[in-house]
Amino acid sequence: MSVFTNKVALVLAGAQGIGKACSLLLAEQGATVYVADWAVEEAL
Question: Which domain of life is it from (predicted)?
Fold first, then answer.
């Protein structure tokens, strides 16, 4: 069980770069991830 299981993360500027990598890693580790970014075309 990951330390992120049953946790919620809000990632700002998460559509690309480090923000995207963090979003994906948090999700893989069991967190519920909400991503916000202006770059709609880059959305996950």
Answer: Bacteria
Q: Angle at CA 34, nearest 5°, toward 30 and 9?
A: 55
List beta partners, residue 32. 8
pTM of the model: 0.82
Question: Which residues, other chains included, contact 10 with Cβ-Cβ below 8 Å and sequence gap of 6+?
Answer: 33, 34, 36
Contacts for 19 with CB less than 8 Å, ≥ 6 apart = 11, 12, 13, 35, 37
Contacts of 5 (CB under 8 A, 6+ apart): 29, 30, 31
User: For the chain, which residues score pLDDT lower than 50?
Assistant: none
